Amino acid sequence: MRFVVVALAAALGCGRAASTTPDLGSTTGVPCAGSECAPCADQFCDTGDFGKTGMCRAHEAATQQSFGCDGPEDCGAQGVFGACCMIEGIGAACSSAGCGTSGAIFMCHGDGDCAPGEHCCALASGTTYSACRASC
User: Fold this and answer.
1) Quick one: 80 exposed, middle or buried, by C-beta within 10 A (0-12, 13-18, 19+)?
2) Backbone phi and psi for residue 35, each to the nearest 5 degrees, phi listed first
3) Contact 105/99 with Cβ under 8 angstroms?
4) How many CB atoms lie under 10 A from the CB of residue 45?
5) Distance separating alpha carbons of residues 117 and 135, to the nearest angstrom
6) What is the pLDDT of residues 32-66, one digit of tens each?
7) Could you tell me whether strands 83-87 and 105-106 are parallel, antiparallel, or unpaired per DSSP bridges?
């Protein structure tokens, strides 16, 4: 059954095989090693290095950090205030009410995804995962 859900999600354009260009927010999907996980199929990237290596999983616990989104485009189902929020050491997930003040930070693809005065900074060298920070 899980194969059918994942195959259907991929066929409908949610998640796909990785291309030679990084995910810049033009489509939903979370880069994960050599593929893209499909958030619309409840997939997340189980990774310890911000998607450089890892495995797409769904409906099971992460063994490392869990990234269910990598930017605001993955959180459209949460409505107008939907945001991709990261907590250091845990991972990222969509929120329907912004990232709040509990230490969560916004995931982004460019400075335009961030609040005024913040910049979209890569979380590690060699990854497309980025977060809004006061300085890089």
Assistant:
1) exposed
2) -140, -175
3) yes
4) 31
5) 9
6) 998 999 988 889 999 999 999 999 999 999 999 99
7) antiparallel
